[in-house]
Structure formats: structure tokens, C-alpha cells
Amino acid sequence: MKRQFPQWRPLGRVVALALILAAIPLPCLAGEPDKAAPPPGLKASIARAAATGSTALEQAKPTAPDRAKLGSTSFFKSPAGIATLVVVALGTGFAIYTAKHDRIHSVIRATQ
Fold first, then answer.
1. What are phi and psi of 85, to 5 degrees?
2. N or C: more exposed end of the chain, with fewer CB within 10 A?
3. Residue 99, SS3 per DSSP
4. In this structure, what is the dihedral angle of CA atoms 98, 100, 101, 107, given to the nearest 10 degrees?
């Protein structure tokens, strides 16, 4: 027996139309934006770098932040660092304990 559900047909058509419209890009959004001026060529960049000299390079180098200004200490001395070390130590200890006290005694493991 074939059942037809005519109330679903218009909804299906609307959904299909919405999917088709979503898949087609809008021409106004597909246009290219205004292009900026192209960057100067290699020779112009070399000439500009030679003209500024090494003083600009020395000024551009980032300086390392002063640790005293930051007021931070080592991560492992902080409470979060200590908690991390404790969790790692407990996990390692538990892994070693369970490996030594395994209830499964395999013949293959015994011969290795």
C-alpha cells in the first residue's frame, strides 16, 4: 500500500529551494575588493634597507622582559605546578604498581 503525504511536498520544495540558494554565491559578494598598491620590488626593498642601515635593525630587536617586573617565579614552584607534579607522580606510581601486580598471568609474558 502506498501512502502519500501531500502536506510534506510544499515543505520539501521550500527546503530544496533554500539549499539551492545557499549553494549559489551571490554576485555582489563574489566581487573582488579594491586592490591596494602592490608591494615594492626586491630592488626597492634592498635600497630602502641599505639606506636605513643597521641602526634600524638594532632598534627593531625585541628585548627580553625583565623577570622581576613580571613578578613570576618558576612554574614548578607555583601551586599549579606542584599539583601537576603530584598528579604525574601518582599516575606514574599507579602505572608501575598495576604493571607489577597484574592478575593476568600470560604464558607469553612469562617467556619474554
1. -65, -40
2. N
3. helix
4. 110
Show the cell assigned to 92: 606514574
Query: Which has the closest alpha carbon to 95: 84, 87, 85?
Result: 87
Q: Cβ neighbours of residue 81 under 8 Å, at least 6 residues apart?
A: 74, 75
| 94 within 8 A of 85, measured Cβ to Cβ | no
Tens digits of residue pLDDT in 14-72? 888 888 877 776 666 666 666 777 777 888 888 887 777 666 556 666 666 665 666 66
Q: Is the pTM above the cut of 0.85?
A: no
